[in-house]
Specification:
The chain has two helices and 26 strands. By secondary structure, the chain is mostly beta strands. It folds into three domains: 83 residues, Immunoglobulin-like (Sandwich); 105 residues, Immunoglobulins (Immunoglobulin-like); 145 residues, Sandwich (Jelly Rolls), CATH 2.60.120. The strands form seven sheets. Strands 10, 11, 13, 14 and 15 form a five-stranded antiparallel sheet that branches. It has a five-stranded antiparallel sheet with strand order 17-19-24-21-22, with no helix packed on it. The chain starts with a helix and ends with a strand.
Amino acid sequence: MKIKNILLSISVLAVIALFMHGCDGMHDNYKEWVGERNYSGKIDSLTATPGFERVVLRWINPTDQKSKTIRVVYGPDSTVVDYPTLVNTASIEGLVNAVGVDFTVFTVDAFGNLSIPTKISAIPVTKSLMSSLTPPAVVVRSLGAEQLISFVGTSNVLMQFAGGIQFTLVNSDGKTVYEANTQMPEFVGANEINIPLTNLLPSGLYQMNYKMLVVPAMNNLPTEDQVWLESTAIINVLPFPDKFNLMNTIDSRVYESNGTSAPDSNEGILKLVDNSKDTKFLTSKNTVKIYWEMPRPFSITQYQITLANDANDRDPRDWTLAGSNDGGATWTTIDTQVDWKSNAADRPRFSVHLIDVPKTAPYKLYRWDITRNYGSSLIQIAEWVLWYDPTK
């Protein structure tokens, strides 16, 4: 009986011990379960935009009260970056390899507990990617009175022109003969850039070293950063013509002060510079001020008048040609004519007349002020040309 009681006591003690052990385990499970249910909130709308040797992450933070800080884990080594506040953007720097990088973003509560992770992958822009881009073709060409450096192919599916070009031109003797650092925000995204040269280049071979600011694209989407694309080109500059018709200068315009003709009419002001003697500019008054404005100053050595088809009493007789570099606030007289070709026989219809002047200072704005004709109430001219000779 005693033995039976002893065995019963041992069994009771074993059950109690087992029960106590089970309670301890349940307590531990309860604590773990409570911890999971109290995780901080998960971020939303995670995006990754590649930049140069970096990736910029952006997201929307949760509105719960437990989330305090942000943790980003990235790369094959699971590099950890902790942010002391609930930032909503992170720039991960130093990504020099052109491979996909995995990023995981957590929120963290006050006790160091991590939220449910949010993941994304991206490939950064690297030097190797930049070296694979096709640089634009470069030529030097003449257009009217301008000598232009033309960059063709500045934007394509892999990059967009971002508005900046730096270049130097080196001649066959190794001397730098031209350099420029140009910002052109109006041409952002353009496929072709034309830069007028203020100092004309003699014919010959040149080496161009240039950098072009571009925004690389991935999957046809622009990336985060502007990056300099560098290249070298050999350019053959052809001989420049001896003189130029300034009325062919790009981005130039002709206008009259009194508005006596419509610019788009059959005999409007634009007919004065259309390179055709068979058209003409006809005013409704016997005096007129005609202006020619260019994007940069030029010096003239001659100007030319082509007389119109009929009515020689409408020909100009007295005038002054002047130049200005302050938008017309002040004028410098270049040439004055009084009783020009007073013998009508010297003014046959459609005749072309060249008038030489000493080479002027360069002017951006020219004014032809006609104050008298040969008796008509109207003035007419077929063509007006300002000639620019870069060799003088």
